[in-house]
Write a structure and sequence with these properties.
Elements (H helix, E strand, L loop, with lengths): L27 H15 L90 H5 L22 H4 L2 H11 L3 H15 L4 H9 L2 H7 L7 H15 L3 H9 L2 H8 L5 H15 L3 H9 L2 H11 L3 H14 L9 H11 L8 H15 L3 H8 L4 H7 L5 H14 L4 H9 L3 H7 L5 H14 L4 H9 L2 H10 L5 H17 L2 H9 L2 H11 L4 H17 L3 H7 L2 H13 L3 H14 L4
Helix pairs in contact: 4-5, 5-8, 8-11, 10-11, 11-14, 13-14, 13-15, 14-16, 16-19, 18-19, 19-22, 21-22, 22-25, 24-25, 25-28, 27-28, 28-31, 30-31
């Protein structure tokens, strides 16, 4: 019985987005339900308005600052945003080389040094959108200072473990004090304790009720140091496990954090940005909730308000986090606002800022053709291509991902990349020392080769065939890079012009593909890909003599017979094609 398997057309393969797993299923309704339970406990402890006539929780417009708030210079330990992690906790000096962005490991180390920024200019605060959650949840999120000395009437019994923790009890008493200097001591002690790596400590402090005490200090605008210490403690709590982040939200922490984004003091505003990033870095539902509360326009304003390196690093990392999880729960105007906010950071002097901005663009380009067009409307395609020649391998890898995402779109999008000159640097990267860069470059090239015959010819003229054959022949090359190279060759076989197929056959590609299959027979999908590609090339080529010279009849028969005996229809179809067309055998 003769089989005629289907021919595999050239295929573009968008990346599948990796979504951070959550230990606890999070949804917005669950957040709101828990907030209602908290509101029952805090109903009698609402805070005053910040100024007469100003709604509670609304971001008021600050007047220009007349005196600077003194801050130490950044000489001690501080962690820059981790380019690969969705959450960040301070540890490393800002001048330290950025960590490997390929390592998706959340750094749980924390230090006791605050985020200190330079003085910045003041600006107007953003008002929440009408009808948005930020209007509805502010009122239940804060406590009145006079009520802090007594627990809520319906509070649960205090656990013995908490009562026996004398240090914790001292901190709680200090935070309940009517003296702001005493509250500052308590807030500082709290943030030092919750900055430790032990999650049990954070759990215990949350159960003891420290969150509402810290959140109540957010409204002391006349005492920014007290705001800063309490905000820093909240930031590190939100950097913990999923339930820690949720506890901050359940306690009504988001409105106060969003309000402090518009603080007149730069270090307070930037600490609020860090807190936002730790919340949105928890999972997609958290991110969508914060976006719904109106964070995007506020962050966009901060891009132009604060120009210090510290500010650029934290804001670019946070904007990138907004686009990290898929699907992105944003309106188009919010997505575009994020892209435009990231755009100036692409040219930043600081390498970490450039990489984080590029990561945000990469996340945004990993989507539909419409989303890819939003990225291209920035008119930064030449910038993305220039990343491929960067001395910073992190930027090279991200640049290759951006280009790969763009060419995963339709032929018109791919043509823009081809015309902009992306093929030569991508081909050069196929021999890069870094495996991750070779893999991303090969994936991008495979999507270009899934385009038109003219686009395939452009890649052939740039020497892509020799590089692909080198990858398959290299015994030390990884299977991931080899698989991407196999996709490239398959797309050439199925979409190239006749002259391109002849060039491919003359170069001995069929033999190389069969040899590579022989070494990877366990990979059934790869086997199918290579066999169908070989059959298509043999069917179309006119270079029969060259093909006959490169193929050994006995070895080819032995290899394909093993697959035929296993019932592989593609192997049978290929062998019949080789026998009849190359060796003139029936």
């Amino acid at each position: 019985m003769m089989y005629e398997p289907l021919t595999l057309p050239p295929i573009r393969r968008p990346k599948k987005s990796k979504i951070k797993s959550s230990e606890i299923n999070m949804d917005l309704e669950a957040i709101r339900a828990r907030r209602l339970r908290l509101e029952a406990l805090t109903l009698s402890m609402r805070s005053r308005s910040l100024e007469p006539g100003t709604p509670v929780g609304r971001s008021n417009v600050h007047q220009p600052r007349t005196a600077a708030f003194s801050a130490s210079k950044m000489t001690r330990q501080q962690k820059e945003p981790n380019l690969s992690a969705s959450k960040g906790i301070r540890l490393e000096p800002l001048n330290r080389a950025s960590p490997d962005m390929g390592a998706n490991v959340l750094d749980k180390h924390r230090s006791s040094d605050p985020l200190l920024g330079r003085r910045g200019s003041d600006g107007e605060a953003s008002t929440p959108k009408p009808g948005s959650p930020s209007e509805n949840i502010y009122n239940s999120s804060t406590l009145d200072y006079e009520d802090l000395g007594r627990p809520p009437e319906e509070a649960e019994p205090v656990e013995p473990e908490i009562l026996q923790d004398s240090e914790l009890q001292d901190i709680l008493e200090q935070l309940r004090s009517s003296s702001e200097s005493t509250q500052l001591v308590g807030a500082r002690a709290a943030r030092e304790r919750v900055s430790e790596t032990e999650n049990d400590c954070v759990d215990r402090y949350i159960r003891a009720g420290i969150l509402p005490l810290l959140l109540a200090l957010f409204h002391k605008d006349h005492n920014p140091e007290l705001q800063f210490e309490s905000l820093w403690a909240i930031t590190n709590i939100a950097a913990g496990r999923n339930e820690h982040t949720k506890a901050v939200i359940d306690a009504g922490g988001l409105p106060g954090i969003l309000r402090l984004l518009s603080s007149r003091l730069e270090k307070v505003a930037l600490q609020a940005v860090w807190a936002v990033s730790n919340i949105i870095g928890d999972n997609a539902a958290m991110r969508d909730y914060v976006v719904e509360a109106g964070v995007v326009p506020i962050l966009s304003q901060l891009v132009h308000r604060y120009q210090s390196v510290e500010a650029q690093r934290i804001i670019s990392w946070t904007l990138s986090n907004l686009l990290r999880f898929k699907p992105v729960g944003m309106k188009d105007e919010e997505r575009i606002m994020c892209l435009k906010a990231l755009q100036p950071y692409l040219q930043a002097d600081d390498a970490a800022v450039r990489v984080d901005a590029a990561r945000g663009i990469e996340f945004a380009s990993d989507g539909s053709d419409a989303h890819i067009r939003q990225v291209l409307e920035l008119n930064e395609l030449s910038t993305f291509i220039s990343f491929l020649d960067s001395a910073d391998y992190r930027l090279v890898q991200v640049g290759a991902k951006i280009i790969g995402n763009i060419v995963s779109g339709d032929d018109e999008l791919t043509e823009q990349v081809v015309k902009a000159g992306a093929i030569p640097p991508l081909v050069a990267l196929l021999r890069d020392d870094e495996e991750g860069i070779r893999k991303e470059a090969a994936w991008a090239v495979s999507n270009i080769l899934a385009g038109t015959a003219e686009q395939i010819k452009e890649a052939m003229n740039a020497g892509v065939l020799a590089e692909l054959l080198y990858i398959l022949d290299d015994p030390e090359e990884t299977s991931q890079v080899g698989r991407e190279a196999s996709w490239c060759l398959s797309n050439i076989c199925n979409g190239g012009a006749d002259e391109t197929i002849d060039e491919l056959v003359t170069a001995g590609t069929i033999t190389t593909m069969l040899d590579y299959h022989k070494k990877n027979r366990h990979d059934k999908d790869l086997t199918t890909l290579l066999l169908m590609a070989c059959k298509e090339a043999i069917k179309r080529t006119t270079r029969i003599a060259a093909l006959k010279e490169s193929l050994n009849y006995g070895e080819t028969e032995q290899l394909l017979s093993l697959l035929i005996d296993e019932g592989n229809e593609n192997a049978l179809g290929l062998w019949n094609e080789i026998k009849s067309k190359v060796f003139n055998k029936s």
